[in-house]
Amino acid sequence: MILILTPNIDEHSPEYCQLMRHLSDLPNLELRIHSEQGMEKSLTEVHLIGNTSGLSEEHLRSLPAVEHVVRVSEAYRVLGRHAGDHRAVGFSYQGIRFGQDNLNVFAGLCAVDTPRHVEMMMRALRDCGQVCTRMGAYKPRTSPYSFQGHGKKCLPYVFELGGRYGIKIIAMEVTRESHIDEIHEALEMTGNPTGVMLQIGTRNTQNFELLKSVGRQHEFPVLIKRSYGITLDESLHAAEYLASEGNTKVVFALRGTKTNNCDPHRNSVDFAFVPVVKRLTRMPVCIDPSHSVGTRASGPEGILDIMHVTAQGVIAGANMILVDFHPAPARALVDGPQALHLDQLELFLEDIQIAREAYEKRLELNSRHSFSSERYAQVLAPDVLKTAVTTENVIAA
Ligand code: PEP
Ligand code: MN
């Protein structure tokens, strides 16, 4: 169960202390406090962990400082959507909002190679009005003999160039806890010219110790990728690890799953799950068309497969796009075959705009017919929706 306290509650106030005394007397329950400083107010939640079936919601609601009580109906305690749950969706970072109702684009280098390429990328982004990018410094590679990323030595110039070209957030994968400290130090050293969104890659989705470390820090938001080899439910549980440690600034990325049935694409595109993740959780949903498709091939009409699947994700309501570009893909040290050319950036952004407008029209059409998912659940498919949100049967030990 989750108790949502009155906004801006002071933890030394008599009501708060009285509430805590009362809750601590309840037998066999662990209390976890989650506090978050929003733009305008601070919000505190008390999570009651253990068997809460005997507790009355009405009684809890009557306790001092309690504004709202949510009975947890989903396995994803913090990030999930629960019945009667009106908690805010999304977060802001560096003045940029991440929600389930808007869209941010992170186009950039899969891996940082040279300062010149970083600068060319940043300049192209600025010229197209972009303020976010991706830049890999730590690269987890299939072969130990492949380029592993420049690591911390490239961070100062990446951050400085980011600041120079007005980039506010750089998505950057980390594979161990010390990378977070290295990023933090490099940002300090360069005068915090930009922000960073830490990325958990598909190979580390279930690296629970890494998730706990990234979740324990609250400075940087996190982009966690769905693992390419496990169920969606297992990946959503992985995201919950971050939140259970206190970091709820989490975006969930779909990047395709591994199977040879999807050849000649690199992975099986799973963007049909955009609305599913939004229904099951309160996380904004990112799509990564580059790692899903893995090739710059195009159809006979000339449209790139990567742009087709991006449009498919956006028209289904995606909230973020992570996509590989490179000034000279043939010379890229990682994933060159899937990187788009810089002169395709404008086209890519305009194509997204078309898909986003189509999504907004679809929303408007749907609301005109007031054919909400709730009504759908009642009228047409009660069992289908129920099955989709019941995760207990697939939770691994
Ligand atoms: C990446 O985004 O650079 C990456 C390695 O992606 P993934 O973890 O999805 O393979
Ligand atoms: Mn890559």
Task: Give a verbal description of the structure.
The protein is of the alpha/beta class. It folds into 2 domains: 2-71, Alpha-Beta Plaits (2-Layer Sandwich), CATH 3.30.70; 92-358, Alpha-Beta Barrel (TIM Barrel), CATH 3.20.20. The chain has 13 helices and 15 strands. Strands 7, 8, 9, 10, 11, 12, 13, 14 and 15 form a 9-stranded parallel beta sheet that branches. Strands 2-3-1-4 form a 4-stranded antiparallel beta sheet. A two-stranded antiparallel ribbon has the order 5-6. Strand 8, helix 4 (155-164) and strand 9 (169-173) form a beta-alpha-beta unit. Helix 3 runs parallel beside helix 4, helix 10 runs parallel beside helix 11 and helix 12 (373-379) packs across helix 13. The radius of gyration is 22 Å and the shape is globular. Residues 379-397 have low confidence and may be disordered. Bound molecules: phosphoenolpyruvate (PEP) and manganese (II) ion (MN). Phosphoenolpyruvate binds at residues 110, 136, 173, 201-203, 225, 255, 288, 291.
List the helices and strands and how they pair.
Blueprint: E1 2-5, H1 14-24, E2 29-37, E3 42-50, H2 57-61, E4 66-70, E5 91-93, E6 96-98, E7 104-108, H3 115-127, E8 132-134, H4 155-164, E9 169-173, H5 177-189, E10 195-200, H6 208-216, E11 222-225, H7 232-244, E12 250-254, H8 274-280, E13 285-287, H9 289-293, H10 305-315, E14 320-326, E15 340-341, H11 345-368, H12 373-379, H13 382-389
Parallel strand pairs: 7-14, 8-9, 9-10, 10-11, 11-12, 12-13, 13-14, 14-15
Antiparallel strand pairs: 1-3, 1-4, 2-3, 5-6
Helix pairs in contact: 3-4, 6-7, 10-11, 12-13
